[in-house]
Amino acid sequence: MAGPLVVFLHRGAWEDRYQAATLAVTAAAFGEQVTVALFFEALRLWVDGRFDEGAPPSAAEARVTPLAEALEEARRELGLRVVACDTAVRLAGLDPDEVRGRLDAIETLPSLWRAARAGRALTF
């Protein structure tokens, strides 16, 4: 196995969230250690419970599992982690104490970078 995978997700478009979530869940299903690090609009959507907002009608037609549901299942069953950078939480206008329950952790950017350096990183 090639070390951890860190998915840096900062864009809020549904397509970016879809690509990041499906790649993260797929990697976790193959036994990889995966961390999804949320920033900006993606972080706000996750914390607000609106991560699936903006899905096109074709997603339902293609039987795409709701993104939040797929990530939550991967968290429970596969050990995938959903985190945010401490500065990103503040930049998004969120209260760290209020978002902790929606995340596995609030981490520093250097710790996320070290994990990415030890393995791989994808950015969306």
Explain this structure.
β1 (5-9), α1 (14-29) and β2 (34-38) form a beta-alpha-beta unit. A five-stranded parallel beta sheet has the order 4-3-2-1-5, sandwiched between helices. α1 (14-29) packs parallel to α4 (67-78). By secondary structure, the protein is α/β, with parallel strands linked by helices. It has a single domain (5-123), classed as Hypothetical Protein Ychn, Chain: A (3-Layer(aba) Sandwich), CATH 3.40.1260.10. Helices cover 49% and strands 18% of the residues. The chain has helices spanning 14-29, 40-47, 57-61, 67-78, 86-91, 96-99, 109-118; strands at residues 5-9, 34-38, 81-85, 105-107, 120-123. It has seven helices and five strands.
Q: Layout of helices and strands, plus pairs?
A:
Layout: E1 5-9, H1 14-29, E2 34-38, H2 40-47, H3 57-61, H4 67-78, E3 81-85, H5 86-91, H6 96-99, E4 105-107, H7 109-118, E5 120-123
Helix pairs in contact: 1-4
Shape: globular
Order of secondary-structure elements: EHEHHHEHHEHE
Strand order of the largest sheet: 4-3-2-1-5
Q: How many β strands by DSSP? A: 5
Keywords, please?
five-stranded parallel β-sheet; 49% helix; 5 strands; 124 residues; Hypothetical Protein Ychn, Chain: A; single chain
